[in-house]
Design brief:
- This is Rossmann fold flavoprotein.
- This protein is of the alpha+beta class.
- It has helices spanning 25-36, 52-60, 82-88, 91-100, 120-133, 189-196, 218-222, 254-260, 279-290, 295-300, 305-311, 326-337, 393-407; strands spanning 18-21, 41-44, 65-66, 74-75, 105-107, 112-115, 137-139, 142-149, 154-160, 163-169, 171-174, 201-207, 211-212, 228-234, 239-247, 250-252, 269-272, 339-341, 345-346, 354-359, 377-379, 387-388.
- Strands 18-17-14-15-16-13-19 form a 7-stranded antiparallel beta sheet.
- Helix 1 (25-36) runs parallel beside helix 5.
- The radius of gyration is 25 Å and the shape is elongated.
Length: 409
């Protein structure tokens, strides 16, 4: 339910042109872009420093964009929603923005761009120094508790040093992020605020998250803990070719994090343990060359010894390739190319790198990211129902949405 309060701040007595809630990737980019345009903003950040997630991203190296980023690598109820923002702020814009401040990109793999010879701290420093140059006020240790939507303004109540304070501005930017990693400052504030205004929320779930295996298969996965295998992981919606990592509680690694964003509880997905090759053809070729070769010896050319040993649970690895029966050959093909996994669950928001779902994009203009029902209110970054793949996509969305909002403040 939207409650309109009488404006408690007469024209000219606003504290800033806009208040931004959350000094993460989206809020910081928004503040800097607003600075270029001569607009004054106040950034309120719950943590004692800005950009907490930028600092830990990419193992402290910050995978700040992806050369391949387009709208196809984003999950949203409206898959077209991101198109406008990505036209207004492109990957090339991200690259040239950071180059202007001495951060040059180096591609690691699959288009993932990291600062060359610099790290995540340098990325955050670009924003803090620009905010200082533009005299944008960044208030840390400031937890926003409540927002009153007035006629033509927003009054933000926050706590700092045990004291309640208020600020008022004609525009409000909600950039307080999503639910992953509560101990790093993540809150459901944006979702609660939006819900309180009667805005629709697309149901949320951890994304880019490791998956757990329990029950009778648990021990089989646990014995492989620490082993990494290059695989093709797929379901009927999507496929990813990257490493999977076995752990004592299930599966992790880039391919698993990717498929987790497309996985629903109770579902099974497939792992092709030898993508791009046909185990049947390899066995056939080996039969012609040396039929006495043990299946385990053939496997050891492609997998670690430990992995081959684990496959003995399902396959006759100690048999010579020449004497494998038709049924055994079919089973080998199935286990190697269509290994079925039914996770029990996921590791939750403590381990997730992103959130699926969020504030329904239908509530916003895709061109401006302004709320259709409440003029002057903008949402950007992870709190929205926009979830990118692993590999710099989520920051590209955070930068792009921060830029678009700044243009419309
Ligand atoms: P973000 O979470 O960055 O910022 C929101 C801010 O709002 C936080 O600082 C929070 O403290 C503050 N806040 C919340 N509630 C508040 C309140 N009530 N009052 C005041 N402040 C409040 N992405 C990528 O592209 N490349 C990568 O390498 C990685 N790596 C990575 C590693 C890990 C471990 C995680 C968890 C995530 C990533 N990501 C990533 C994802 C990326 O970090 C994420 O998509 C962006 O940080 C989202 O930016 P936002 O600005 O929307 O939220």
């Amino acid at each position: 339910m939207l409650i309109l309060h009488k404006n408690n701040n007469i024209n000219g007595l606003m504290d800033a042109d806009a208040i931004i809630i959350g000094a993460g990737a989206c809020g910081l980019m928004c503040a800097v872009q607003a600075g270029y345009l001569g607009k004054k903003v106040i950034l309120l950040e719950k943590n004692d420093q800005p950009g907490a997630k930028i600092l830990i991203s990419g193992g402290g190296r910050c995978n700040y964009t992806n050369l391949l980023a387009g709208d196809e690598q984003f999950i949203s109820a409206n898959k077209h929603f991101v198109k406008s923002a990505f036209t207004q702020w492109t990957v090339a814009d991200t690259i040239s923005f950071f180059e202007t401040y001495g951060i040059y990109g180096k591609e690691k793999t699959l288009g993932q761009l990291f600062p060359d010879g610099k790290n995540a701290k340098d990325v955050v420093a670009v924003f803090t120094s620009l905010c200082a140059d533009f005299e944008q006020r960044l208030i840390c240790d400031a937890q926003v508790m409540d927002i009153a939507v007035n006629e033509g303004s927003f009054t933000v109540k926050y706590e700092k040093g045990g004291k309640a304070k208020t600020l008022t501005a004609p525009k409000l930017v909600m950039a307080s992020g999503g639910l992953p990693i509560p101990k790093m400052g993540a809150t459901d504030f944006a979702l609660r605020f939006a819900r309180g205004l009667g805005l629709n929320i697309v149901s949320t779930a951890p994304a880019l998250v490791p998956l757990t295996i329990t029950g009778k298969d648990e021990g089989w996965y646990a014995q492989l803990s620490g082993n990494s295998v290059f695989c093709r992981v797929s379901n009927e919606r999507i496929a990813f070719e990257e490493n999977i990592l076995f752990t004592h509680w299930g599966l992790s690694g880039p391919a698993i994090l990717q498929i987790s964003s497309y996985w629903e509880r109770g579902e099974v997905f497939n792992i092709d343990l030898l993508p791009g090759q046909q185990m049947g053809s390899l066995i056939e070729a080996e039969r012609k060359q040396n039929g006495k070769t043990l299946l385990s010896a053939l496997f050891n050319r492609h997998f670690t010894r430990k992995f081959t040993d684990a496959l003995a649970k399902f396959l006759p690895v100690e048999k010579q390739v020449a004497v494998l029966t038709k049924a055994e050959l079919e089973n080998i093909e199935q286990i190697i190319h269509e290994f079925k996994v039914k996770p029990a669950g996921d590791k939750g928001y403590d381990k997730a790198e992103a959130m699926r779902g969020g504030i329904d994009t239908a509530e916003l203009s895709s061109k401006t990211l302004e709320c259709r029902k409440i003029p002057g209110l903008f949402f950007g970054g992870e709190c929205l129902d926009v979830t990118g793949w692993l590999g710099g996509y989520n920051f590209q969305w955070a930068w792009a949405s921060g830029f678009v909002i700044a243009r419309n403040l």
